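Below is a filled-in request sheet from our internal design queue. Each sheet records the structural input a requester submitted and the sequence that came back. We keep these sheets so that new team members can see what a complete request looks like end to end.

REQUESTER: design group, bay 2
PRIORITY: normal
MODE: inverse folding
CHAIN LENGTH: 249
BACKBONE (tokenized):
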């Protein structure tokens, strides 16, 4: 089964993320276990793209496909890339924003990828663990447990029914949700996330499998939200990366 990852970055002021990505050997290991990584630069300058593409992070991902999109909104680019991924023959895609980092080990990554390659599912959320551990266990190893949770379990925890956190999902499932004219015309990522939450919350209960572990997590180092957590997140990344220091493969 063909599996890829898709990450989109934007503008010219997010280089601090790539300083930390270059130390994230587990994420590099993870990307190199996939069939392709789509790395999309959205409305970034050519000089900035060249700078980021020369970081150890991008250089160490063997299967990376760098794509440049300009003069286009986030929602237009997001749906355009989902369609391209489907046209390229991929069945499942990991979606990570550029501020997502690994908080796990290579062994857990191997367990995760074994599940993805051997099971049919709609979506597996890999950031917030233990949403509802009373749900049926659909996959288990000595390290990783996956529960048959859904969007209503998130709502009961006062969380988004669907957000832009790290996940892996069926490309057809994603297109069924996001290839929506009302979503596409929104433009920016913040209003798009709110629109999708309301859509799922009001119209349907979708599968959002969850795990017992935080595998990947968004951090607040740049942007307009959550910068009060910056120092704590820098410490989290430094502590995690110091434990995982070995050569990415």
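RETURNED SEQUENCE:
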């Amino acid at each position: 089964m063909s599996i890829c990852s898709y990450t989109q970055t934007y503008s010219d002021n997010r280089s601090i993320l790539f300083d930390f990505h270059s130390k994230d050997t587990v994420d590099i290991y993870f990307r190199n276990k996939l069939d392709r990584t789509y790395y999309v630069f959205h409305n970034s300058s050519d000089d900035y793209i060249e700078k980021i593409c020369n970081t150890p992070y991008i250089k160490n991902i063997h299967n990376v496909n760098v794509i440049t999109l300009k003069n286009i909104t986030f929602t237009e680019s997001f749906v355009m890339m989902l369609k391209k991924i489907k046209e390229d023959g991929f069945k499942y895609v990991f979606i990570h924003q550029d501020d997502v980092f690994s908080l796990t080990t290579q062994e857990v990554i191997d367990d995760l990828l074994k599940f993805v390659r051997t099971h049919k599912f709609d979506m597996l959320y890999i950031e917030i663990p233990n949403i509802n551990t009373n749900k049926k266990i659909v996959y288990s190893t000595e390290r990783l447990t996956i529960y048959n949770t859904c969007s209503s379990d998130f709502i009961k925890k006062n969380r988004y029914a669907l957000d832009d956190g790290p996940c892996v999902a069926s490309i057809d499932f994603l297109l069924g949700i996001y290839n929506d004219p009302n979503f596409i015309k929104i433009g920016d990522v913040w209003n798009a996330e709110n629109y999708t939450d309301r859509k799922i919350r009001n119209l349907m209960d979708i599968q959002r499998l969850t795990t017992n572990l935080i595998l990947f997590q968004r951090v607040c180092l740049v942007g307009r939200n959550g910068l009060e957590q910056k120092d704590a997140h820098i410490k989290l990344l430094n502590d995690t990366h110091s434990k995982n220091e070995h050569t990415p493969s």
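SHEET NOTES:
- The two ends are 21 Å apart (CA to CA).
- The first strand starts at residue 3 and ends at 10.
FILED BY: M.R.
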